[in-house]
Fold each of these.
Amino acid sequence: PSGSGKSSLIDYFVDMNNKLNNGSIFILANSVEFYHESQNCVVRHQEINSDVNTLRDGLANVVDYLPNLVVLDEIADYESLERIWHIIDSGALVFATMRNKSAIEVIQALIALYPSNNHDQARMQLAKSLRVIISSLLIPVENGEVVPAHEILISNSQIGNTIINNNVNDIYQTMTQGKKQGMQTLEQDLYFLLKSGLIKPEDALEYANNPTSVKEMVKYRT
């Protein structure tokens, strides 16, 4: 959601790639909040309603720039998503934002962009192309500061098969058991912040997608 820190997180990833890798970065946004000067990468910025009329129009020409990394605002329609798959198939890594609070909601929202008779196609494409989903929240604490909490899904063959077989709700359990692969649920991170004394119990419950899961972790791990 707005104010969750996703723009800052993506700008960090862009900055890291710009400094450490050689290549081309293409940023297509409704509003360019932070301008990245080209360093090791050639960075191009395009603003919707200024440089191009719509996201779809901007995506139509992205491949011509031979980008290694493409950064987009929110994916909102089927046609844009189809063009994103084309960009990924060309070999580029794509960062895009959604307004959903959890990895499962993101997957469901992307599939729902397709016409209902094409959902199987959407699942196949998503299972092939998805690499990671990071869900970010900023939790207000004392002194006007905030603490970030994250849910992280790393796509692997198990996740891919779960998506293809339309068993998306099983993904939550896979994330809870995927620490070695770098995965975690939002509730696991909230529990960590709670045990670290960074947030209060009421904060953990308020911001959790699954408050019952937080309660169970407190009950059985304390």
Amino acid sequence: MFHGSRNLGRLQEDCLPLPGEHVILSGRRWRVDEIDVERKQVYVVPSRGRRPPAFKSGGSDIDPRIHERMRQVLETPTSPLYLDATAIEILSASRAAIRHMDLGRRVHLKENGVRLMLWAGTRVHRTFHLALHAAELEVEAATDLGLDVSAPGDAIAGALRTLLAAPDGIRLAAFAEAHHAARALHGDKFDEFVPARLWQRGLCQRAP
């Protein structure tokens, strides 16, 4: 990981943050600015953001039905009969946090943009992230459930209208390969030998 020409250290290859997200290294907070796929180098800039860095496990995608069920449980006042006292306490605290943060609402206006609460699974989350980033908007994961977009409202609305009206998976796959190092970091063993167009079509089928 580099700041300019200064080598700050190494990150685990399969758990790299996306451009715009934050990491802590050498005792400081950094925002990922660019990933150089060919050199396998990550370039960062100093950041003073308040959001804690995301620590990724590299696990499987979350199905939309999981997020939908999570939302139902959190927004329902009754508790399942099989929960013990500790589980009920944890669930109650989670429900209070959801109400306090109003995370059930889809769009939250912020000082410099919006927070989009998707509740739609990993693939939808990833696709929206790529589409907004490809539209040259500043976007990062707020949680596994939503995205923070720092841009004027009309720019955000325009990017989302384009995505919904004419989704272009190949374009997003090419963008993920060029700017998110998708092939190098998350591809299969022999993906480096696959022609770009074919690899991008494969990514469209299994990822976004």
Amino acid sequence: KSSEYFSEIISDLEGFAIFLMSPDGTIQTWNKGCELMKGYNAEEVIEKHYEILFPDFLRKDHMPEIELQEAFETGRYETENWRRRKGGKLFWAHVVLTKVEDESGKFIGYIKITQDYSDRKALQNELENKTKRLEESNIELEKAKEKINLDLDGFVYTASHDLRSPITNMEGLLSTIVSKSCYRDESTKPLIDMLLTSVEKLKKTIGELTEISKIQNAANDDIQEIKLNDLIEEVTFSLKDLIDKSNAHIKLELEDCPVIRFSTKNLRSIIYNLISNSIKYRSPERTPEVLIKTTIKDEYYVLTVQDNGLGLKKEQREKVFSMFKRFHDHVEGTGIGLYMVKRIVDNAGGKIELESELGKGTTFHVYLKQ
């Protein structure tokens, strides 16, 4: 009677294959969903053990017995794996096997509910394949990026090396001109002064290009524990003229991480460029204030440099670390400093994050691996 009642309830649930089994796994009922999904009609399966619905490799692995045993012991068994249609074709299924007891608590069998997840499995496989292809593309992209960086380093080294000689010659010629009487000609003097200034800028740019090449190729062989207070004091001393001229206030909050283990010359370069950048791009409406703060987050030392300067637009923030990129022409500079900072951080396995709001200021968060 219970089998007839159960069969009547589930007969219309055609989206699910639902059937009742006796305690030993013999099929007792078979709804319309079972026929549609598995291909067998009721007469072909009733009173047969439900192992006929398993592929051979799952029967060899004793999956029917394992499912029944776990459902009996825990009350429920759930899985996703292959199941077999009539004729042998396989489909991917979501299976729930539930232990059934009567009102007195006597164990009377199992309910088996199966859904065809073949479409979902196909989508999952497609997604996994796309993810794998994307990972492979990312690997290729990283290789291409590495090659471009190496090519760029080669170009930078060659260009800076080859330009030194003609620039030196030009500087010598200008020095000779300055020593001649024509330099005292009022109409000539401003032009020569402009040439001398341009030569100095070229020399500075070539020097920074050389530094970029050194940063990329140098081994961090000077890694040691660095007292930040001492290093920042050294950097601010070298920036004394700029700090005094702008009346900049520099505040330190280093209590959480007063010592960082890193390359001394590289950390000095990072701090120098970030402080000088903060003061150079100060707002004319207020006294420049620079906060330097350190913390530890996960596996990183975090060096934060925050200013109240000019700030950047959103589209500018995305390009701020590009070589030779400058957004304020009223400030002297080559646009190489922040590029160098990012290269140093990237090469050391760290990362750098930027927050900025136009007219309010900019904050750099430099993450350096411990």
